[in-house]
Known about the structure:
This is Cis-prenyltransferase. It comes from Coemansia nantahalensis. By secondary structure, this protein is an alpha/beta fold. The protein has helices at 3-27, 37-60, 76-82, 87-108, 127-147, 149-154, 169-182, 198-214, 225-229, 256-259, 277-299, and strands spanning 68-72, 112-119, 157-161, 189-196, 241-244, 264-267. The chain has 2 domains: 1-62; 65-299, Decaprenyl diphosphate synthase-like (Undecaprenyl pyrophosphate synthetase, 3-Layer(aba) Sandwich). The chain contains 11 helices and 6 strands. α7 (169-182) links the parallel β3 (157-161) and β4. The protein is globular and about 75 Å long.
Amino acid sequence: MSGLAQLSQVLAALVLVAAGYVVAVGSGSAASWPLPLQQQCKRAVDRGAKAVRNAAVRVVRQGQIPAHIAFIMDGNRRYARRLQQQASMGHTFGFHRLESVLEWCNELGIAHVSVFAFAINNFDRAAEEVAALMALAKDKLQELAEKSDLVRQHGVRICVIGNRRLLAEDVRRVVEAAEQATRGNTGMRLNVCFSYAATDEIAAAVRRVVEDVEAGRLPEDKVDEQALERRLLIPGPPLDILVRTSGQIRFSNFMLWQTAKMAYIRFVDVLWPEFSFFQMFCILVSWQLAHSRIQQRKCA
């Protein structure tokens, strides 16, 4: 049975669940259920949603799977303001969404994921917010490395990418500990771009090229695009897809070199904590439909 046929069957099953709910309420039989009606319905909907997601994953895996996807996780502060919460709470909500997105990427078989967690110019924000972000980063990096089921069961490797000289010593220790704890993992690689800017990454790569030439490790006639690219900070294959949430149409100095190499760019008009599997599914399907044209342009 094809993936589309499976997805159709699951959707039909959800319709039947809804119809059964209406019948039960109308007949009064709901009173005899062992669990309250609301809880029964929630469990049914959760099971149905999981079945739909599993079917959608099977559909996507019938086609080409991107090797590397990146996310600009924008909209956390606006989400917090909408809920009349402090900005720091928005970043907490954003981390919980990241956990879900990483789970989806793992199910889909995406081997490399890069996320923009903290830009260098974010140090210019209010001192209280920067301090809250640093505390959240320490807490969540440690949680990912030591307690995350996704990391433990699927061998996710954490790499923190950015200018570490700008980080406080206690933050650097947590960063190094998270990397060390997952260094031997062979599953999905998570590049956390923290204290990062693309221009800073490119400038650092240029400095490394100059140092290697002066030290005799790189002949001058071998200085080319590939030599610079090999010295960039973000590891992994070429970037296939860049996703930015919140409706903003800009790159915010994130992975500029990698994006320029024919990455598929999608700007999504939804705040990061509200980014859904359905939106992820649509992005991947649209990339699959465009994949052959992208490859042709790369080779042109």
